[in-house]
Design a protein that fits this description.
The protein is α+β, with helices and mostly antiparallel strands. Helices cover about 60% and strands about 5% of the residues. The radius of gyration is 33 Å and the shape is flat. The N and C termini lie far apart (about 75 Å).
Length: about 850
């Protein structure tokens, strides 16, 4: 405890000379929410001690005696700690109705004072906090969680020793508060097991405070839940973890979060989470909105990366233990580099002669070593220090500047994908060069073909990272997909395929023109893949005319394939199909098999899923399969063909065929991309939809959960693609009768979509309708009305699918009737829902039409 020349005394405090057990009070040191701390004298052992009196508050079914016994047990657990970085506890006992802890009196000051007393280097700060962290780890080893770690609870002695103190909130790992939530928060209590649920409450409350208009959703259920439940919050708010704000179970990772807040504040001079109100602070903590590092900071990036991991809102994503975090902080890359340099220097002496012998061989290899140099300014390979290149730093900054909550996660995935791509590109460049220049296994003609292919791929990578450097929120949302859409490098090693395609023009001027047009096309493709679908659409005809004027068929095929896909995305599938068919013919004439597969596969989606021309779609699927069978390989292209074909089969009502196609696509993606790729996550979600259609809801739930897990790790838990799967999960849970769980899943989707797309986005109606249906499943029609009214308002204005309109109309009709709210309107909405279902014209709608007919007939009888 802190020392000083005098002690306080005040109202309610014990006077000097009073006794607490065998300890004689010298004076009051401090008073806090958990009790008072006194300086005292232990006459038996002739030493000065600090004695803390812990308050015991009865209530909520807990008697004073029970409360004192529980507090005493917790104090005894703290007394089991024995570590050089933890304040030593000498004695535990009771005093009147209170529990006391007698501990060593530390001659020193708090870390807060230590930092403010003079300027400290980041290395000094790390040393002190590492020592404090070891104290926390000692507590965790005894299965104790501090739950109130902050700079004021760490002492730095005059001898330099560091000790953690004030375990007044400590509790056994996994132990819950026995105090129940208040009645008004029952619904929230069941749902606050997830960060997003609290974010819902915070966002709704802040919106209510800042707007004069009343959101109809705030009229019932979750929308009325208050932020704070009595007894749920434990700790100092500025240093609290999401789970403490939520009132859920705390464990060692809770202390890790608080530790990282305190360390961040000590290093940067400010706390990581902003917020001028409790609501704002809570929202930022729960959503993981960490501030940018202050300008001019000397804290190295590797330290910040460690802190950001420790500050993840999801405890599962933090370090597995304080020990693991401390080990990471102990690994200073600069120290490791110096050690390696000394080792290398010692090894260089005996190698000098050998290097001289091999010098002539190395000179031949040097000519092929410029692959990594060509990546400069595009996406450089990380050096031994792990530092970001200027381009990587620019992309990282641009992503974070969008303020998307998932930007950091997306950047991590993009960095990994592009890093692997760049490494493979450099390796293939080196191998292609050596095959001709060193080993003589490959002709100069083949080298030219391979280098031309690699240059195309490099231009695509350059264009994409340029788009990323000026990222918008839309770009960040689509960045992982855009990264995986880069041209495959395997083609550049497929010599027979390269020879089959028409060679580049021999005329230097024409060849330069082709290269320039390809770069323009690569730039457009990068923007399209990154979600900027409309970029360049107004000048597409001009560029296509320029490409046709050159007359190089492979480029014409590539350009038409791209513009055909863009037209399709911009709701012009008919024109898109025309351009895609011509692309296929141009590619066929020039033996450009890559484009043949892409054009044919895209036409499956265009004709089958968008236009409902199923026979045409199946014909193009057979054509694409024939090309793939002849050229071999191309598993990624085959996987997306299967994905498109499955969508068509599903639209036709052939659920079993769709299931088999999705299973094949998933297996191929796992093989090529790896089980953790976003492509795999999308396929898992597609499988869940088909399984739900087949009534295999439990299997569907397993696949959609895997989809959410994969996409959350690759894209971030707040990504809109995750929201889509969360909404799908809600549909499945509703089908299983797990209505409360379904509502939580829909709520998480709603939060993400509202934040990313606005309050009237068309897709929001899926989640809002699902919420209403979940209330109907629980026979709570009154609560169902508000979300269904909002869903219908959106679908009435924006939804073109009559089946979806019918879904919301019928649910709203049932809610209004059962809630006895305008039954005349309810019947009218039921009639409109029936007409909407009938308009779909698919066999699967007949059951829905029958359900509406039955409902209407029963209401007319009533």
């Amino acid at each position: 405890m802190p020392s000083g020349p005098s002690y306080e005394s005040g109202p309610g405090g014990l006077p000097r000379g009073a006794s607490i057990g065998r300890y004689v009070v010298l004076g009051l040191v401090g008073r806090g929410g958990m009790g008072e701390v006194y300086a005292a004298y232990d006459h038996e052992l002739d030493r000065k001690v600090a004695v803390k009196l812990l308050r015991v508050k009865p209530g909520n079914g807990v008697s004073l005696a029970e409360g004192r016994q529980r507090t005493l047990r917790e104090a005894q657990a703290i007394a089991r700690l024995s570590h050089s970085n933890v304040v030593i506890v000498y004695d535990v006992g009771t005093f009147e109705d209170q529990v006391f802890i007698a501990m060593e009196f530390v001659d020193g000051n708090t870390v807060t004072y230590w930092i403010q007393s003079q300027a400290r280097t980041w290395q000094e700060v790390l040393r002190v906090f590492s020592a404090a962290g070891r104290g926390l780890q000692a507590a965790h080893d005894k299965e104790l969680v501090h739950r109130d770690f902050k700079p004021d609870n760490v002492m730095v002695g005059r001898d330099g020793t560091v000790r953690v103190m004030d375990f007044g909130l400590a509790r056994q790992v996994g132990e819950r508060s026995e105090r129940p939530p208040s009645r008004s928060a029952d619904d929230a209590a069941a749902m606050l097991g997830d960060d997003e649920a609290l974010a819902t409450i915070v966002i709704n409350q802040e919106a209510a405070q800042s707007s004069d208009t009343q959101d109809p959703l705030n009229q019932s259920g979750l929308f009325d839940t208050q932020l704070t439940r009595t007894g749920a919050m434990m700790g100092t708010p500025a240093y609290m973890s999401p789970e403490q704000f939520l009132g859920t179970v705390t464990d060692a990772r809770t202390d890790q979060f608080s530790f990282c807040i305190a360390l961040y504040e000590a290093l940067y001079g400010e706390r990581p989470f902003g917020g001028n109100s409790m609501f704002a602070l809570t929202a930022n903590v729960v959503q993981g909105n960490v501030k940018e590092a202050p300008a001019g900071t000397k804290v190295p990036p590797w330290v910040r990366r460690i802190l950001l991991r420790g500050l993840r809102p999801n405890a599962e994503e933090r370090f597995p233990s304080m020990r693991a975090l401390l080990e990471a902080l102990d690994k200073d890359p600069a120290v490791a580099r110096r050690r390696r340099a000394l080792t290398i220097a010692a090894a260089l002496v005996p190698l000098a002669v050998a290097l001289g012998v091999r010098q002539s061989v190395a000179s031949h290899h040097a000519v092929c070593g410029s692959g990594t140099e060509r990546l400069a300014g595009v996406w450089e390979l990380r050096d031994a220090t792990g530092a970001e290149s200027p381009r990587q730093a620019a992309v990282h900054h641009a992503f974070l500047a969008t303020k998307k909550t998932y930007a950091a996660d997306v950047y991590a995935s993009v960095e990994r994908i592009l890093g692997n791509y760049a490494k493979s590109w450099a390796g293939m460049y080196h191998e292609a060069c050596e095959a001709t220049q060193v080993r003589g296994e490959q002709s100069a003609d083949v080298l030219d073909l391979r280098m031309s292919c690699l240059q195309e791929r490099l231009d695509g990578l350059r264009a994409l990272t340029q788009v990323f450097s000026d990222a918008t929120g839309e770009v960040v949302e689509n960045a992982v997909g855009a990264s995986t859409a880069l041209g495959t490098l395997n083609r550049c090693a497929d010599v027979p395929l390269l020879r089959a395609v028409v060679r580049p023009p021999e005329d230097p001027a024409t060849r330069a023109r082709v290269d320039d047009l390809r770069r323009q096309l690569a730039d457009r493709k990068a923007r399209y893949d990154a979600g900027r679908w409309r970029d360049g659409a107004d000048t597409a005809d001009r560029l296509l005319a320029e490409v046709r004027a050159v007359g190089y068929q492979p480029l014409v095929a590539e350009t038409l394939a791209f513009f055909g896909a863009q037209r399709m995305s911009l709701d012009d599938p008919a024109r898109g199909a025309t351009e895609l068919e011509e692309s296929f013919r141009q590619a066929d004439a020039s033996r450009h098999d890559d484009v043949r597969v892409i054009a044919a596969s895209t036409l499956v989606w265009d004709y089958g899923y968008l236009q409902g021309k199923y026979a045409d779609a199946h014909a193009w699927a057979r054509t694409a399969e024939a090309v793939l069978a002849r050229i071999g390989g191309h598993e990624v292209e085959r996987a997306w063909l299967l994905n498109n074909l499955a969508a068509v089969e599903g639209a036709e009502g052939h659920s079993e065929e769709a299931l088999h196609a999705h299973l094949e696509a998933l297996a191929l993606k796992e093989k090529v991309r790896g089980p953790g790729s976003a492509d795999v996550g999308i396929s898992e979600g597609n499988l869940a939809i088909v399984l739900e259609d087949l009534g295999r809801n439990q299997e569907a739930l397993e696949h959609v959960d895997r989809s959410i897990d994969v996409l959350s790790r690759g894209l971030g838990a707040e990504h809109p693609d995750v929201a889509t799967q969360l909404s799908n999960r809600g549909e499945i849970l509703n089908a299983l009768g797990r209505y409360r769980d379904a509502r939580l899943s829909f709520e998480r989707a709603r939060i993400i979509w509202e934040r990313e797309l606005g309050l009237d986005a068309r897709i929001l109606a899926y989640a809002l309708t699902g919420i209403g249906v979940s209330y109907l499943g629980e026979r709570d029609a009154m609560s169902a009305v508000a979300p269904l009214e909002r869903a219908w308002k959106i679908r009435e204005a924006k939804e073109t699918d009559p089946g979806r309109r019918g879904e919301t109309l019928f649910a709203l009709a049932r809610a209004l009737w059962d809630a006895d709210r305008d039954r005349h309107r309810a019947q009218a909405l039921g009639q409109t829902a029936r007409a909407a279902y009938a308009k779909v014209g698919q066999p699967s709608m007949s059951t829905k039409v029958g359900d509406v007919d039955t409902w209407l007939a029963q209401r007319q009888k009533g």
